[in-house]
Amino acid sequence: SFTINEKHLCLTQPLYSTSVSALRRSAPTKSLPVYMVRNFIYMTLNALKTIHSLNIVHTDVKLDNILFTNERYALESALEKYLEENPSQVNPDTQIPESQPIPSEWTYETGAFQAERMTVSLIDFGHAEWAEGTPLGEGFCPISLRPPEVLLSSGFGTAIDIWAIGCLTFELLVGRWLFLPEDGGEDWSIEEDHLAKMMELTDQRFSKSVLDRAKNREKYFDGEGNLIHIDELIPVKIEQAMSNYNIPGLSQEDIAESADFIRACLHLDHEKRPTAGELLKHSFLKKAFHC
Predict the structure, then answer these.
(1) How confident is the model at residue 15 (pLDDT cuts 50, 70, 90)?
(2) Residue ranges of the Protein kinase domain (predicted)?
(3) What is the tally of structural domains in the chain?
């Protein structure tokens, strides 16, 4: 709840269950079956397609913000019974009730047929921005999901959310972050390492047009478009990065299709990334909800 012009306003929303992040972390490999991943990404992209059509950028698309709908305790009587049997716990130090997610009926072992009943919603618009104009905030997205235009200050728009979708697809399929930049101390910054890893995994270079509009260009690039402190780049195909983890059940066909999808999301020039609507037509998602 909040107050605007001396009026007390309250926002209500459906009661959700646990997050896709919690489901992923519960699996032994920290990854989920490809049929689940397709469905989750398909539903999330549909949500983004809607908000992007309204010129809204979410800016914080992550697995913690993708929640399962509450079907297990949809009836008020069922929810009341659950809360009676599982009263909220109070932190002994602060005396504040602790978070108590409503449990989901789904597990990482849920089969393809049953998985088609899973529904998720994209939540938390607390950091959302208008796509047009100057954003009010800065430092959007968790570091591992941060796109190059945020690091370079080279533009802003709905493509920020598309970059996150590519990173999350990789994370869901192999149980690891796609980008894990490291601080090189006096040798290089964590941002420069991040930019280097982007070029290595996408096999792209930052174009002159991107660097020309980048306010932070001189922090990381020389006049020739090379990174100032990192001389050698070692390209690694996304397919190879996925294969290295030997995830059970993830076939070479799945890897090829998903890698092509991820690569489409990760165009270094945000103006050339596909829209949410275009990605929904990608071959990787054509099998969504088709067990």
Answers:
(1) confident
(2) 1-285
(3) 1
Phi, psi values for residue 268, rounded to 5°: -65, -25
- The CATH number given to whatever domain includes residue 85 is 1.10.510.10
pLDDT digits (tens, 9 = 90+) for 144-175: 999 999 999 998 899 999 999 999 999 999 99
pLDDT confidence tier of residue 221, bands split at 50, 70 and 90: very high
What gap in Å lies between CA 274 and CA 140, rounded to an integer? Answer: 20
Output the DSSP codes for 263-285.
HHHT-SSGGGSPPHHHHTTSGGG
CB count within 10 Å of CB 202 equals 20
Eight-state DSSP code of residue 145:
G
Range of the domain at 206: 3-285
Tell whether 100 is covered by a domain.
yes
pTM: 0.91
Residue 146, Cβ density class (10 Å: 0-12 exposed, 13-18 middle, ≥19 buried): buried
Residue 291 lies in a domain: no
Q: CA angle, corner 76, sides to 73 and 81, nearest 5?
A: 70
Residues 6+ apart with CB under 8 A from 105: 71, 72
Identify whether 290 is part of a domain.
no
